[in-house]
Amino acid sequence: MGAVRKTIAVTNSQDRWIKAQISAGHYANDSDYIRDLIRRDRQRLIDADTLRVAIQEGLDSGTSDKTVASVMEEVETRQRRDGQL
Fold first, then answer.
1. What are the φ and ψ backbone dihedral angles of 80, each rounded to 5 degrees?
2. For residues 52-83, b (16+ Cβ closer than 10 Å) or e, as one string?
């Protein structure tokens, strides 16, 4: 994997924060910190898209005539079958 050099500007406050994170041992250097932010942002977007799809699937599935009690019973039965209870 190749690397591309980037130059960024941060405020004094942001610089102090980054340096504090490095001093605390959370990151090896500024680049390590920035790369972690990018990784986490990418994962956040993936998670948001996954949630958006699941919500739409739920909306598209329509309403159910099942009761809360019957849904809970199905969940408990499935958990017992799968060894989760």
1. -65, -45
2. eeeeeeeeeeeeeeeeeeeeeeeeeeeeeeee
CA angle 43, 45, 50 (to 5 degrees): 95
Task: Name the residue type at position 56.
Answer: Q
The region that residue 25 occupies, defined by phi over 0 for left and psi between -120 and 50 for alpha, beta otherwise, is left
User: In this predicted model, what pLDDT tens digit does every residue of 5-42 receive, in sequence order?
Assistant: 999 999 999 999 999 999 999 999 999 999 999 999 99
- The identity of residue 82, as a single letter, is D
